[in-house]
Each structure stands twice: as C-alpha cells, then as structure tokens.
Amino acid sequence: MPRRVPGYELLHLLTMAQMVQRLPGPANVLVVGAGTGQEVLRLAQARPDWRFTATDVSADMLALARQNFVEAGIAARVRMHVGALDALDVGQGYDAALMILVAHFVPHDGRKQALFEAIAHRLKPGAPLLLADLMAAADGWERPAHKHACMTLGLSEEAADAVLKGFESDFHSLDETELKAVLARSGFSAPAAYFRALGFAAYATTRASGHAEDEPVRLDSAQEAV
Asked: What is the pLDDT of residue 211?
C-alpha cells in the first residue's frame, strides 16, 4: 500500500493527530472498513483509554485483524462486526468514526450515500468523521504523476500501470463538490481537508448537532444536481 498511495504513512500520522486532538478523553470509536486493523492498532497504542468497533464486510480480513489485536494485547478493547454497517446496532452512539481508503470502492449509485447516512446515524451529535479517499483527477497530469510517484517508491512500470488501470475499473471517486453534497445530504458539516497527495485526500467533518456551526451545509443549485 505505501508504494501505491504516496504519503501513506503521513496520512496515518495526520489522521491520528486529528483524532487525538478532537477526542481528548475516553472515547468509543467506530472504524468502518477496518481491514486488518492497522488504524485501530495505531490509535489503540496512542490512546489506551479508547475503545473501538471494527467493521468490515470481509470475515477473512477481520479474522486477520483479530489476530493482530490479540498479539498487540488490545483485543479486549475492540468489538468486531462482520457485514454491512446498517446491521450494526446504534447503541449509545459513537464519539467518532474513521473511514480510511474505503468509500472510493463504493459505487455512487445510492450505496455511497447510504454508507455515509449509516455512519451519521451511529455517531453522537457533533462527533467527527475522518475519511480518506482517492478523489476524481484534478487535471490530466495527476494520474501520470501518480504513476511516476509509484515507480519512484519502488513499483515496476507494469505494476504502476496496473494501479492506474485499477483506478479506472475498481474505484468510484468523487470530486470535492460531489463529496460535499453527499456529506451534506447525510447530515454532516462541510469537510475540511487535512491531507492531500496527488489524487488522495483526507477530510474531517462532523455530524450535525443542532448548533449553527455543525448544521449540514446548504447546497447551491449546482450541488443539488450532483
């Protein structure tokens, strides 16, 4: 992954910094698309007073995550959920949610919107959501530059070409206007970027809490059409 996502380690470092600053006390964190649990491992080490719910549609990935949690001595602090997020009970609500390099795999045909709505439904009012995705290319140079960066990081030209081909066939990337619209319709505030590296970007947003600064942003006519 670090050779396919330029700035991968910096992305995780900045995500952890954002989370630690936003949640100064004990917290219950929802991790969507947890995979093998790398984000949970990093955050659990930084904050021993946090608990986590790790979700993923892949039982195999979560089985690997569970093994990693046991080896790290944090298994007692992590709840596991295999399957769709809308099958996860809401409970008392989560203090924060994390979704790193996940939503770009979800088609923009109503399923991406439903995913963000499911996250919002499980967050406490005012709780932050931190997300990172491959965004739509800003211009015609961005993807070729990405290929060059991947090769500089150690991929062969053939492997770097395969990365770009995968972007076209397997990813459902939004531009920032589309992302802002999806978040607004889901009950989130306007996103603030905290990381960018070629096509990859990370954003922080919050679930609406009833305060003016946390209300979903109003869409202009162009955004309503997204």
From this structure: 38
